[in-house]
Amino acid sequence: MKDRGCRIAVLGSGRGSNFEALATAANADWRIVAVGSDRRDVPLLAKATRRGIPSFCREPAAYPDREAHDAALAAALKAYAPDLVLLAGYLRLLGPAMLEPWAGRLLNIHPSLLPAWPGLHTHERVLAAGDREHGATVHFVTPELDCGPRIIQGRLTVHPGENASILAARVLALEHYIYPTAVGWYAGNRLKLEQDRAILDGRPLIDPVVIEETACV
Ligand code: GRF
Question: Which of 4, 98, 117, 150 could form a disulfide with 208 if both were Cys (CB 3.0 to 4.6 A apart)?
């Protein structure tokens, strides 16, 4: 890590609320040096501009295939020399050109208690299944979607009669707490990936750290 703390890049495809939470939480140990997107005209990029953080866009349609798009994204990121890359609502699967250079230095946030409900529409699926608990997970990124070693989860109890949009807002508030927490651990040299395991404070995380909603709102 560089003298001025951990350099972070954020990749996303849309709203950018996790970026905002991260940028607000940044401190002497870490700061966001770049924001990237696969989509133009998204709120995420406008939010980065408003904060004076450099941003870039690499649209898939401009490249012949996924590998070429991944390579272009990786090259754009490399210009900012990030120590850690955060996926925050980045809606594309990453291939080796992105995964290899940042192996162990790439995190994602997902709106469910992984391994439950990988993929999209998690809130609707939680409600349809009648789950009593729901939440969000920060994990290291590996080639399989939403499957890398888990680091931290924010957990809540689903209330009777709750709809998907209320649940989504509660989960998002958890996300805005657990993502900066995980980044702080990484930047403080407390968190790493070793032999496909998340290690926190020198101990393998068999299960992720769980923060209850009541403790973080
Ligand atoms: C979040 O719910 C995150 O868990 C998921 O995509 C959403 C991104 O939201 N991966 P935002 O763009 O950070 O507001």
Answer: 150
Q: How far is the CA of 3 from the centre of ligand 1 (A)?
A: 30
Global pTM reads 0.96
Q: What's the whole-number mean pLDDT along residues 76-93?
A: 97
Strands 203-204 and 197-200 turn out to be antiparallel
Return the amino acid letter for 135.
G
Cβ atoms within 10 A of the Cβ of 59, count? Answer: 12
d(CA 207, CA 25): 25
| Element holding 182 (H helix, E strand) | helix 164-187
Beta strands in the chain (DSSP E): 6-12, 30-37, 55-57, 84-87, 106-110, 133-140, 150-157, 191-194, 197-200, 203-204, 209-212
The reported pLDDT for the residue numbered 4 is 73
Query: Ligand 1 pocket check: which of 117, 139, 150, 175 to mutate, most ligand atoms within 8 Å of Cβ?
Result: 175
Q: Which helix (H) or strand (E) holds 97?
A: helix 96-99
Beta-bridge partner residues of 153? 137, 210
pLDDT(1) > 90: no
Q: Does residue 43 have its Cβ closer than 6 Å to ligand 1?
A: no
Quote the distance between the C-alpha of residue 112 and its chain's center.
13
Q: Is any ligand 1 atom within 6 A of the Cβ of residue 139?
A: no
DSSP-assigned letters across all residues of 5-61:
BEEEEEEESS--HHHHHHHHH-BTTEEEEEEEESSSS-HHHHHHHHTT--EEE--GG
